[in-house]
Design brief:
The protein is of the alpha/beta class and about 210 residues long. It has one domain: Rossmann fold, CATH 3.40.50.150. It has six helices and seven strands; from the N terminus they run ααββαββαβααββ. The chain has a seven-stranded mixed β-sheet, sandwiched between helices. Helix 4 links the parallel strand 4 and strand 5. Helix 4 packs across helix 6. The longest helix has 15 residues. The chain is globular, with a radius of gyration of 16 Å. The chain starts with 19 loop residues before the first helix and ends with a strand.
Length: about 210
């Protein structure tokens, strides 16, 4: 893993530096993007996620938005609230785990065919370390899909995220990939509503672990 020396020291500070477990202690059973953005995300999953694979839903909540026709062999959730994940009908198993204090993922090497992180990357204070961990737990040829919009809990988003435009968010996530491991096929996606402010935009960055 490469160091974060190129980032300013305060990039990953937050307005609220209290224990994250307090903020996420009660369930929020709401979706964080609207239906148009969810549809765009599902279209992207159809193109990128391998049908019948084993998936890790990183920073998981009560919905994973996986198209049912992909028929995954298993979906594991890792998040901050047990009640939210217990209500997620697509999860076969889940674990409560704070990536901001424990960036190492509690899984063996080459466990998953795909990993997704949906509308949550803005809360990571050690993103490069976590992207490197995702690389470790992916099988060769597996993909990591990071999606986000223009909404967040500003008190828990890192300072860099709050100061950037949507285009800069895409570039920042691309840099997380570039610094964390030898990813291949790095790609980006952008879906903006025809009429701004009426619907949520969706952005994504994804890449693959090289095949063996």
């Amino acid at each position: 893993m490469m160091p974060l020396a190129e980032f300013p020291q305060d990039y990953f500070r937050r307005q609220d530096e209290s224990d994250d477990s307090l903020f996420y202690s009660f369930p929020r059973l709401v979706v964080h993007i609207d239906q148009q953005a969810i549809n765009a995300l599902q279209d992207l999953f159809r193109k990128v996620l391998p049908p019948g694979g084993v998936y890790l839903d990183l920073m998981s909540s009560w919905r994973s938005h996986i198209p049912p026709e992909l028929k995954p062999a298993g979906v594991v959730g890792l998040g901050m609230n047990a009640a939210e994940m217990a209500d997620n009908p697509q999860l076969d198993d889940y674990i409560v785990h704070n990536l901001n204090t424990l960036p190492r993922l509690p899984y063996d090497d080459q466990t998953f065919d795909a990993v997704m992180c949906t509308v949550s990357v803005q809360y990571l204070v050690r993103p490069v370390a976590i992207f490197a961990e995702v690389y470790r737990v992916l099988k060769p040829g597996g993909s990591f899909v990071v999606s986000f919009s223009n909404r967040c809990f500003p008190n828990k988003a890192v300072r860099a995220w709050l100061s950037m435009t949507d285009r800069q968010h895409i570039s920042l996530v691309e840099r997380y990939f570039e610094l964390s491991a030898e990813w291949t096929n790095l790609k980006t996606f952008s879906k903006k509503p025809i009429i701004p402010m009426q619907h949520d935009p969706l952005y994504a960055v994804w890449a693959s672990k090289p095949s063996a």
